[in-house]
Amino acid sequence: MKTICIQVPSLQENDVVDVEVTVNGEKRLINYRVESFDWTRGGFDTEHRIERLRELIKEYDSSWELVQIGMPDRDLIPVMFRRSARVVH
Q1: By the 8 A CB rule, do 28 and 85 touch?
Q2: 44-59 as b/e: b if 16+ CB within 10 A
Q3: Distance between CA atoms of 87 and 89, rounded to whole angstroms?
């Protein structure tokens, strides 16, 4: 899938953004979700935080694919997921 960049307002935990695009005259709906995870459980050193984040992503709903990992804010780290495009009629 090619990538486009769309500016959206600041998202809060568990927000879902729906984007409708038209490709060759066919409308498609793409869902994005941002989750904020507490990645400090299990330790505060970098290695433990990265391993915790890997576990959280691995256990996430498989109908959502990982798109981006954001900059951490203290104990929380935002992670963006995308659900596969659906044709809109």
Answers
A1: yes
A2: eeeeebeebbeebeee
A3: 7
pLDDT tens-digit readout, 30-57:
888 888 888 888 788 889 889 989 999 9
65: tokens are 């694919």
DSSP, residue by residue, 45-81: SHHHHHHHHHHHHHTS-TTEEEEEE---BTTEEEEEE
Q: What tokens appear for 16 in the block?
A: 């879902």
Spans of all domains in the chain? 15-87
Whole-model pTM above 0.85? Answer: no
Rg (CA), the chain: 15
Reading phi first (left if > 0) and then psi (alpha if -120 to 50, else beta), residue 25 is in: left
